[in-house]
Amino acid sequence: MILSDKYIEQQAALNKIIIKGFDSNNLKGASYELTASENYFDLTENPSKKLTAKNEDGKKILIKPLHKVVLITQEHLDIPSNILGRVVTKGSLFSIGLSAVNTIADPGFKGQLGLVLYNYSSKYIVLDIGEKVAKIDFSQLMEDSRSYSGQHGFSAQTWPVPTHLQYEYNDVKDHVRMKPSPLEEAYSVLPFEISNLLKVLKAGITALQIALVILVFVNLATVILLFMDKIDNISAAIFINVVSTIVASVFTFFYKYFISK
Length: 261
Known about the structure:
It contains six helices and twelve strands. The protein has helices at residues 5-13, 91-94, 169-172, 182-189, 192-227, 233-259, and strands at 17-20, 27-28, 31-42, 46-52, 60-63, 68-78, 83-89, 98-100, 103-105, 110-119, 125-128, 132-140. The strands form two sheets. Strands 1, 2, 3, 4, 6, 7, 8, 9, 10 and 12 form a ten-stranded antiparallel sheet that branches. A two-stranded antiparallel ribbon has the order 5-11.
């Protein structure tokens, strides 16, 4: 049986289920909208470093493009042994590219929830402290269940990340699904727009290096001819200028019409 908004409010008044941070305005039918506290973690940058929004400009939570974060809720829960909480994504946030990983609050859970969210958009997403970030509904079980025995919310001031499951390229390079080089692997895992930009930049750098080598040899040959009195200073200057202009023009044309396409 899913608990109604009235029942959730009654239990909160008795200091049950949602024991701290409860706001009746966040009740929506048979669910409650959870809000972000000032504490969060950026799993993409440094999962062990707690970030505090109140120390940042404008007291905002910043979620960078393609980053995973854990938002710690303002609400403190105390789930009875016969109640199960289910956390789901808010549609309004999903529409701008922010998706919460659906999870559950087991019977016996106590403390603040950590909500894993992923910004799959190309935009920076900025949230206020107190922003509604997910929904939770509660179901009553047929009988008391075995109580939750893991980390109770944010009590440890850390977020448990199973880093033993994470590896670098060199650790898994022999796997059948891996590309033969780190660069090719990067192209395959990065978004198309980013990998394509990297390819363009790499090709441009290669072309520029070739152009610089040509100019070095031209200047070297000119210096040798000057020492051998084969040409005068004016002719050398004109020769270097003409060759430099030709090389620059060829490089610009090649980059514009071939590399950047």
